[in-house]
Design goal:
Number of strands: 9
Structural class: alpha/beta
Strand order of the largest sheet: 1-2-5-4-3
Largest sheet: 5 strands, mixed
Length: 197
């Protein structure tokens, strides 16, 4: 019998007790949370254990939850046991004012690029990373573009043409301007291609 999620939960709980929490299985994948200072301990355990064998880092990214005070940034690790073909995901949360996390580059070489990308877009400081510099954005940027720190586009603006962005007009996407110079939503317009009244 192959490795099951129940067995993984059991082994993690035996080793770390209540430090590993919030077990879920959305979309059929085991997910859980660990404290930020334990990310390497948990990964090392998942890697070294002869039964678990999570030795492939599929991806690593971040999510910004601006309303989650003191836990605004979630760093998400996806690991894969290629022998049993089992995947799991775990998260750690950090305060956006001090987004320090231990690097996983000594355990997974793939973490080098992934952590640089996460730093570049979210500003997570991976302590111990051998070369934590921007990888996709220009060095002169003094902000992190994937953080939700900027207002959404103002739908009442009149100085833009939605038709140029594939929204509105005869195409029928998004919002459309009427002859009265107001904006209406697609749901108010009727079927795609209908003329405005």
């Amino acid at each position: 019998m192959g490795l099951t999620y129940d067995r993984i939960k059991e082994k993690l709980t035996e080793k770390f007790g209540g430090e590993v929490s919030n077990f879920e299985e959305p979309y059929g994948m085991l997910c859980f949370e660990v404290p930020k200072d334990m990310n390497l301990k948990v990964m090392q355990f998942l890697y070294d254990d002869d039964e678990l064998r999570f030795r492939f880092l599929t991806t690593l990214n971040a999510i910004h939850y601006p309303d989650n005070k003191g836990r605004e940034l979630a760093i998400v690790y996806h690991l894969h046991n290629m022998v049993d073909n089992v995947r799991l995901r775990f998260k750690i949360y950090v305060d956006i004012t001090k987004p320090d996390v231990f690097t996983a580059t000594r355990l997974f070489e793939a973490a080098n690029w992934l952590e640089r990308e996460t730093y570049d877009f979210y500003g997570v400081n991976f302590i111990g990373h051998p070369n934590l510099v921007r990888i996709l954005n220009v060095d002169e940027m003094d902000y992190f573009p994937m953080r939700k720190e900027y207002p959404l586009e103002d739908q009442t603006r009149k100085d833009k043409d939605d038709e140029m962005f594939g929204r509105g007009g005869s195409v029928g996407y998004g919002t459309v301007k009427t002859d009265a110079d107001t904006t209406i939503a697609e749901s108010e317009k009727g079927n795609v291609g209908d003329k405005l009244i």
